[in-house]
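USER:
Make up one protein:

ASSISTANT:
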Amino acid sequence: MIARSEGAKDAAIAAAFGLASFILLVIRYWVPPGKIFDEVYFARAAEEYLQRQYIYENTHPPVTKLLITLSVMLFGGLPHGDNAYGWRFLNVVAGAVAVALMYVLAKRITRSRAYAAYATGLFALDGMHYVQSRIATPESFVICFSLATLYTFCRYWDVVADAAPKTIAPRPWLTHGLEALFSLGVAGAVVLLRFRGESFAARIVLLTAIGSLLYAAYRLLRDRPRGTRWLIAFAFSGALLVASKWYGVMAYGVATVAIAVVSMRAWRARRASPFPIDTVIAAIVGSIGLVYTLAYLPQFIGLSDLPNAPPRAYSVSDIVAMQASAFSYHWNLRATHPYASAWWSWPLELRPPLYSAIYDGPKFLPTAAMVYSLPNPLVLWPGLISVPLAAALAVKQRNRGYALVVLAFLLQWLPWMFSPRIAFLYHFYVNIPLIAICDTIMMQVIEERLGSWDPKAARGIVAGYFALVALSFVYFFPILSSTAIPQTEWLQRLWLTSWHN
């Protein structure tokens, strides 16, 4: 009963943070009114969906484009919702939901309601979060699904970690192997009967997805393992993430590493892994297949390939070929962009992208209304210290919450060093909430260590840092929100020469 009451209180606090964030984000979210940056692709996709036309932007999965389409529909569809009000509204909602999710994740990591609120405040006062939540591109949905994936996996990990260890059963792989073969057999029959005309690649994809979904459903319904609801929530939030942008698969990589490490330690102790690994894998693969299928329903129903041409229904082979084409596009893309930046520079915030610039006013006092996707430097730069500190504490204290945050940070950042295409600082956005949590952990350490001999000084440092972050957000706000200010004041806010050269 006490736990339920505590959970309700945390849910209320998270909802309050989400509402406060929504109020901040929704004010003048339609400014600037035209399409800016990649809205020329993603807001355009909403127009194409509603007219049942070929989707020009086909190099990313469709979930976020469908959500932007839904946003336009909420404002009346075409033509009434085909404007900045319609394109961006659900991005604002996603940004607010991300703040609420940040609170519940930070509470699991810090085990402190006060410090969870502290971390949530740091994230809500980040400039990149503010900007990306007010533009019709995938990133605010990506951050929302990313936090949901990390939170649900954290809850799942907590549940299975608290279970009593079990001894290894004799030859469990034989029983599970036969069950997997039966699931694949049923899936194969479905594919042969219903999808006989599809390409070989499409049939393999269908066989894998259907077989995995059947096996996961069978195992979960029969065995009802601990944490089933959190496993399902994790699998589907991760699937939504992957079906929004492919680099979301890195969140699954976090879970893979965590499960592998825990399972290896269990096997060395002659204990069964607390994770039903085969069920977890099947749930992940099956959920991705199901979400991807649902995301391409407009194509299956029918879209026009050419203007004024009648809609045609896409096949599974068409959809699989689209994925191969998208992968080839990203792998072979060698384009340049004035605001592109290297992966190693992101924690240093060397090149924030400029999304919009409007110059106006008399010659003697020209004004500029800018939108920079600029992380709050006082949140990002302390991460150069706080992330390694959290990593050291994770090892020293064997703290799985800290380990999860640091592992997620690394796996959502370091794989970008292998990306052959150009990248931007906003690809680092998924790590901003994790840095905010690490900054909070650092403040916790300061309060604990310094507070033992000077509590007043410790509280002053913790409160002072938060105040500086808030003041920094206010200071940079004009170049985040397209607020017209004298150009001299705009230039004062570009602290590094690389921000404007």
Remarks:
- The chain has a mean pLDDT of 91.
